[in-house]
Write a structure and sequence with these properties.
This protein is mostly helical. Helices cover 83% and strands 0% of the residues. The chain has 8 helices and no strands. It is elongated. Belongs to the binding-protein-dependent transport system permease family.
Length: 219
């Protein structure tokens, strides 16, 4: 029987790397695609741009539908799709796809809320000066909402860390898988304790960095 120290030395580095890959990939995809969806929701609900009630309601419904699913149910539902796409869904790649699908609607609402916080007068002034929508997006909307978006990215990463632990319940790798396979199934309590401490430290570091970046971009 392997000791706690042997288990951690042998499996923890790879488990951490798998978690970093899953969370990193899903964060990038979630922020890019979710940001675009959030921008569509914001523009379609703003009379200064392309107010379109039907588009806003349709996209909003799809976002809410995905967000309403508990991640574990979403994960199980995606297994046939992941099997078709990847062959083996029980891998970090499968976990990254599932996390990405969960991250997109989550960050979409975060981004929409960030854009909605922008001073309406600033937007009106930009439109009155004849600036194109693209110019307003790149020079006004994104810069003005950047501190809030940064905090939203931090919130997304922390949420995905929690979700990544659930990915371990189906054996897709990461620290959640290590916690289940060795900490829970083999009754190695210290493995669970170490993983919990590591997660707490990671979240604290991410939160500190996020707050620092948000303050940097705050005017």
């Amino acid at each position: 029987m392997e000791s706690t120290t042997e288990i951690l030395q042998q499996y923890l580095p790879q488990a951490l790397w798998d978690t970093v890959k899953m969370v990193g990939i899903s964060t990038i995809i979630g922020v890019i695609l979710g940001g675009l969806v959030g921008l569509i929701l914001f523009l379609a609900n703003n009379s200064l741009f392309y107010k379109h009630e039907w588009l806003h309601k349709t996209v909003g419904f799809l976002v809410n539908a995905l967000r309403s699913l508990p991640f574990l149910i979403l994960l199980v539902t995606l297994i046939p799709l992941l099997t078709f796409l990847l062959g083996d869904p029980y891998t970090p790649a499968g976990g990254a796809v599932a996390l990405s699908i969960a991250a997109i609607p989550f960050f979409a609402r975060v981004a929409e809320s960030s854009f909605a916080e922008i001073d309406h007068g600033v937007l009106e002034a930009s439109v009155a000066q004849g600036a194109s929508t693209w110019l307003i997006i790149t020079n006004v909307i994104i810069p003005e909402s950047l501190p809030s978006l940064v905090r939203g990215v931090v919130l997304t990463i922390v949420s995905l860390l929690g979700y990544s632990a659930m990915v371990g319940t189906i054996g897709a790798g990461g620290i959640g898988d290590l916690a289940i396979q060795y900490g829970y199934n083999r009754y190695e309590t210290m493995v669970l304790v170490v993983i919990i401490v590591i997660l707490i430290v990671i979240v604290q570091i991410i939160q500190w960095l996020g707050d620092w970046v948000a303050r940097y971009f705050t005017k």
